[in-house]
Known about the structure:
The structure holds two protein chains of two kinds.
Chain A: E1 9-11, E2 14-20, H1 25-41, E3 46-53, H2 59-74, E4 78-82, H3 86-95, E5 103-105, H4 108-133
Parallel strand pairs in A: 2-3, 3-4, 4-5
Antiparallel strand pairs in A: 1-2
Chain B: H1 5-12, H2 18-31, H3 44-54, H4 62-73, H5 77-81, H6 100-103, E1 122-127, H7 130-146, H8 151-172, E2 175-182, E3 188-195, H9 203-207, H10 220-227, E4 230-236, E5 240-248
Antiparallel strand pairs in B: 1-2, 2-3, 3-5, 4-5
Amino acid sequence: MQEARIPIIGLYDDLIVPIQGAIADDVMVALQADVTRRIQDGNARGLIVDVSGVETLDSFMTRNLRDLALSARLMGVTAVVSGLRPAVAITLVEMGLEIPGVHTALNLERALELLRATREEEARDLGELEGDDA
Amino acid sequence: MPDPTEDVLGALGDYFPPAIARAVLRSTLRRGEVAGERIQEGELSDFVAELERTLPMYIVDPARRGECVGRIRRLLPSERREPPPSPRPRPPRDTPRAPPAPLNAVAGFEGHANGSSDRGSGGIVRIRTARDVVDACDLAREVARKLSFSLLDQTKIATAASELARNILLYVGDGELRVSVVEVPKRGIQIAAVDSGAGIPDVNLVMNNGYRSRTGMGMGLKGTKRLMDDLAIESRAGTGTTVVATKLVS
């Protein structure tokens, strides 16, 4: 089935992926390929997957989402899932599902702040390291 | 005597739109462990016996249900001569189970012949692609919304439907998700996932805590059970699986 692909928005050093509505599996698989390719081709440092438009996440979709975030992380990109709706979050917890190893943020704004803070922290660590060297 | 399938479909056609009539036929055959989509000559009486148990999924009103069964029964060669219908012996297949029958009362299609007029009262989604899983999920949410479930419960119900439909897709590849409204013991929603795949060899194992399937996070059915009030599984190696999940409006 040919589906519209989920757009990947480049914003400064970050990639933003807004997911709307229900995502069919094939779209999710395509997304993972697209995101990892964009990471490889560009110089992205952060990835935000915004799921504020998602009304339902079942265990399979949750796993796909986690895989997307973890594959980005393995490529050295900080991944944040943002905008999980309250009902979706509660449902996931009730089912015993978590997304371990993945940062989460209340909304897109917070996710951007989180990425910035992470980056500043990294820069500080790096600065201290260089300071030690000097 | 020729293949009675068309006669049965014709009779069911008085009660359902054609697509649903075929679904009733299919699911009844499946329950009777008959492969394929046709009733073989001489198997009509077995079919009627199975139909009596399948039909509550589709017709709520017992009187109307009885009428429908009677209509099919009249197709039996013996009945054509001798009107008083004796209760047919049930095939030996029926082991104790919690069938959809007693609980689920209201089916989606009663009353509207085109089968599409009111999605909010239920429906059937054939599950063969990932897109069908999404459709099943949407249908369940729609019915839940019409029943005035809270947003959280709507989400849980939609997630459960998605989970059940996905099980069909991942493990069998073809099946049906039926969403209906129940009235007994209270108003609620019932989601039945029906397939004729290999079956679950050990239901207890699947529902046990340590279990992890090859594709999921080991949470599928267990997780679904937590989202709903009740979840019953009927499965046998080789004959397929029926999972019925119910949630009542609180």
